[in-house]
Amino acid sequence: MEILLANPRCYCAGVDRAVQIVELAIDTFGAPVYVRKEIVHNQFVVNRLRDLGAVFVEELSEVPEDSLVVFSAHGVAPSIHEEAKERQLRVIDASCPLVTKVHLEVLRFVKEGYHIAFIGRKGHEEVEGTMGHAPDHITLVEDVEQAGTVELPSDKKLMVLMQTTLSVDDTKVVVNALRERYPNLELPPTEDICYATQNRQDAVKEMCETGIGLLLVVGSHNSSNAARLVEVAQRRGVPGYRIDNANELSPDWLNGVELIGLTGGASTPDEVVQSVIVRLKELGADNVRMCTAAEENVVFQLPLVLKEAESKFPKRQPATK
Ligand code: SF4
Question: What's the CA gap between 283 and 30, in Å, rounded?
């Protein structure tokens, strides 16, 4: 039994930056550092940062005045910044720059008179943050069924934008369905689904073509991009399972499987994937080989207030081995 390991997998540049921001904030300003929502959707990461001194809260009302609060990688609505200001909180915004790009698109297109059809998952923090930038000018479209029934204003120019971590293939289907009903619907000049989502999905597609009999995706239950990776395999007839860690791996899944595809969602640290490899070897895997779909070298700058502290920490190595 062999393991086919996806490259790229695990941390993207936005998640790496967000996690570093919390680590450096604790190191620079001391614990506790409050974090609104899970900094990234991964239980292992959240637990480790909690041990270092991060305090995770759902809402700003739980943060004592004058405290330091970090906003998560998923981005926030302007109303959250205003609330922080009113409560005199010190803020470091760990929103991924690619999410911020979508926020700026919303503001720009609304200013230019567009109404926006936003493809995304209801209740996801990124969707709430993005829609909060112009709630009266955005309509959420979750899937192809909704694309067939949603009512968009007929007297406005229409633009479609989307959550950064969706399935590339499914999103095309939704856009096409919307365009059948609204031929004047426009697309932004550059893709909203981010490079990391695209590359991780491409790696899974390549692994499916290579002939894996099973896909394991390491990622937490609330990770959108991990869930989409499982779907990519399942759509190609390959059984796929999402596991948070090695303990959730069921030996029964391996029955009759010669080649196991293994990857990690964009918010999963590679060390968790490595622990799954150890477990798979205990269960009989005797070789690991790589399936490379793309090379990644994207790095996002840290906020200025933390740049100095950065030099104290060694750079993380990307998960390519
Ligand atoms: S998945 Fe993409 S948009 Fe989300 S944090 Fe990573 S790089 Fe940013």
Answer: 43
Nearest CA to ligand 1 atom 2: 194
Q: How far is the CA of 265 from the centre of ligand 1 (A)?
A: 10
Please check whether the two domains, 2-11+194-292 and 13-96+300-310, share a CATH topology: no
Which residues line ligand 1 at a C-beta cut-off of 6 Å?
Answer: 12-15, 73, 96, 98-99, 164-165, 194, 196-197, 225, 266
Active site residue 65: no
Q: Pick 13-96+300-310's CATH classification: 2.60.120.40, 3.40.50.300, 3.40.50.11270, 3.30.70.20.
A: 3.40.50.11270
Dist. CA 282–CA 243, nearest whole Å: 17
Among 194, 228, 298, say which to mutate for ligand 1: greatest number of ligand atoms within 8 Å of CB. 194
Task: Please tell me the predicted confidence (pLDDT) of residue 301.
Answer: 94
Reduced to 3 states (helix: H, G, I; strand: E, B; else coil), residue 169 is helix
Confirm or reject CATH 3.40.1010.20 for domain 2-11+194-292, answering yes or no.
Answer: yes
Domain ranges of the chain: 2-11+194-292, 13-96+300-310, 98-181
- Which residues make beta-bridge pairs with 264? 218
CATH code for the part of the protein at 98-181: 3.40.1010.20
Per-residue model confidence as pLDDT tens digits over 78-133: 999 999 999 999 999 999 999 999 999 999 999 999 999 999 999 999 999 999 99
pLDDT attached to residue 313: 56
Structure tokens, 163: 């959550």
From the list 126, 128, 206, 296, the catalytic residue is 126
pTM for the whole structure? 0.93
Residue nearest to atom 5 of ligand 1 (CA): 14
Positions of the chain with pLDDT under 50: none
Torsion of CA 169, 10, 215, 242, to 10 degrees: -90
